[in-house]
Amino acid sequence: MESFILLFAIGLLAGAINAAAGGGSFITFPALIYAGVPPIQANASSTVALFPGSLASAWKFRKYIQPFPNISIKIMAVLTLAGGLTGGLLLLYTPSAGFNIVVPWLLLIGSLAFAFGRQAGNLLRKRMQIGPWLVLSAQFLLGIYGGYFGGAVGIMMMAVWSLFGLSDIKVINANKTLFTGLANAVAVIIFIVAGKVYWAETSTMMVATILGGYFGAHFTQKLDPVKLRKGIIFFNFIITAIFFIKTYFK
Length: 250
Description:
The chain is an all-alpha fold. It has ten helices and no strands. The protein is globular, with a radius of gyration of 17 Å. It has helices at about 1-20, 25-35, 40-60, 75-90, 95-125, 130-150, 155-165, 170-195, 200-220, 225-250. Helix content is about 80%, strand content about 0%.
């Protein structure tokens, strides 16, 4: 019972974090492992649990969702879905031992992207011209990452979009909730069909992420975004360090 209370509380927080800045999987994934779910199944269950919350946030932000200049939103959606399918299949065929080894590095990539994605985007945009097809290609790769693991994929998407010169944070954040949901959509179906989801734990967390995603989209707009972001960055690196220690120094 204590584990399910923890999963519900983590789900509320993760849904709100995803609505505010992304990175909810940084807490749902380790929480599921703590509850006794094996790593690959924990990753699949985390993806399924967070999926409805991302849709709830997208619905809340729907008035801000709009196409990017000179880029078809339909093409972006198709590429994101295709990437999510590829990533989900890759996860199913990754051996458990290999996934355990790569998890800390995936967390590190996500943590760095969350912390420095905007700065990297601004720097690269000053040094090179970014065209629509490069953004679309990157979107497909991000879809793969989202289907395979997904940690901070929303932040990575915003960093890539910033390379294209997008600056309206409300539009970027709203589109992030939509496209992270699309990246996970096909992967969710794959994980369910493959029987990789621990339903008792996932259902508990799913209800909470829906509530957290919907109400978090409203309340987090009132929080200091700088302080919120710093807190999430600190937590992400703590979780990453713990996984490195458990994997390589046990």
